[in-house]
Amino acid sequence: MAATRKMTVTIRADLLDEIRAEAAERGLSAYVAEALRFERDRDQLREVADWLQEEHGALTEQERTAAFDELGELDAEHERRRAAGKLTGKFAGGSAPEEAGR
After folding, report:
1. Which has the closest alpha carbon to 2: 37, 26, 38, 28?
2. Contact, 22 vs 31, CB < 8 A?
3. pTM (2 decimals)?
4. Which among 5, 42, 58, 78 has most CB atoms closer than 10 A?
C-alpha cells in the first residue's frame, strides 16, 4: 500500500453532504483521492491537447463534432453495460466527465 498523508481542506457544507452520501460505501478519503487523480489526469490530458494543437493546428468544427459524436457513442455503450450490470469498479458508479471546452 502506498504511503498516505493526512490533510485539511475547506469545502462548502452542502457539497460535503452530497459527497459523503455518494461516497458512503467506499469512504470519503477514497472518493476524494479518486477525484484528485481524475483532475490530475485531466490536467495532463489538457497539456497534451494544447501541445498537439500547437504542433498540428486547431481542430476543425467537423473534427470536433466527429470526436464528440464518438464520445457520445462510448458513453451510451457504458450506460448500456452499467444497466446490464456488466461494469464494475470505478466505471460502474457514475457518468463520464462533461465535455471540456465544447
Report:
1. 37
2. yes
3. 0.59
4. 78
Print the SS3 string covering the chain: CCCCCCCCCCCCHHHHHHHHHHCCCCCHHHHHHHHHHHHHHHHHHHHHHHHHHHHHCCCCHHHHHHHHHHHHHHHHHHHHHHHCCCCCHHHCCCCCCCCCCC
| pLDDT value, residue 87 | 62
Check whether 90 has a pLDDT greater than 50. Answer: yes
Write the CA distances from 99 to 21, 48, 95, 102, integer angstroms. 25, 16, 11, 6
Instruction: Determine the pLDDT at residue 61.
Output: 94
pLDDT band at 85 (very low <50, low <70, confident <90, very high): confident
